[in-house]
Amino acid sequence: MRALVPLLLVIALSACGGGGSDGGGSAYAGGASPPADYIDDPPLWNDYVLGMGETINLAESVAVNFVSVDEDTRCPTGAPCMVAGNARITVKALTPRGSFMMTLNTNPDLPTSALFDYYGVTLRKLEPNPSLDAQGQIVPIPASEYTATLFVVKEAQPP
Predict the structure, then answer these.
(1) Same-domain check for residues 7 and 51
(2) How far apart are CA 44 and CA 37, in angstroms?
(3) What is the model's pLDDT at position 40?
(4) Structural domain includes residue 159
(5) Core-most of 25, 57, 105, 137, by most CB within 10 Å?
(6) Which three-class secondary structure string do you get for the chain?
C-alpha cells in the first residue's frame, strides 16, 4: 500500500498537464502554437536578415539588434560612379556579460566586421540599394525599408 501512494501521486500529477507557467502549455505568443519554422534560440554561424530596429535572440543568450543606418553614400543602381561609396550601420549586441555597440560598413576598405565578448558579427549586405528617380536624383530610402544581413559567429571559448 505504501508504494501505491507515490505511484498514484505521480500519475495524478502527470495527468494534470502543467509544463508552462502561462497555463496554456506553450511559451509562444500567449499559448498559441509557434509557426512550423519557428526555432528557439537559432544557432550561431548563420546569416540573419534584420529590419531596422529588429532584434534576433540567438543561441548562448546572444542578441543582436539593427539600431540604425548612420550613412548611406553608396552608388545608386544604374548610375556611373567613380567610387562604390559606403553605408555605415550601428548594431547593438547583448550577451550575459554586457552590451556592445558596433559600427559596420558595406565598403570592404572599411571595417565590415566587429568583435564583441566572445563573438563576432559581419555585415554581409544592406538593402535596398539607392536608386535614381526620372530626373536623376537619388531617391531617399525610408529607415523602415532597410534590411541588414548579418553573419554571427562564436570567435573564442570563455576561459
Answers:
(1) no
(2) 17
(3) 55
(4) no
(5) 105
(6) CCCHHHHHHHHHHHHCCCCCCCCCCCCCHHHCCCCCCCCCCCCCCEEEEEECCCEEEEHHHEEEEEEEEEEECCCCCCCCCCCCCCEEEEEEEEECCEEEEEEEECCCCCCCEEEECCEEEEEEEEECCCEECCCCCEECCCHHHCEEEEEEEECCCCC
Residue 116 included in any domain: yes
Give a yes or no: residue 24 inside a domain. yes
pLDDT digits (tens, 9 = 90+) for 11-60: 444 444 444 444 444 344 455 554 454 445 567 778 999 999 999 999 88
The total number of residues written for the chain in this structure: 159
Backbone dihedral region for residue 106 (phi beyond 0: left; psi -120 to 50: alpha; all else: beta): alpha
Q: What is the pLDDT of residue 78?
A: 82
Cα–Cα distance, 151 to 62 (Å, whole number): 13
**117 lies in the same domain as 143:** yes
**Cα of 66 vs its chain's centroid, Å:** 7
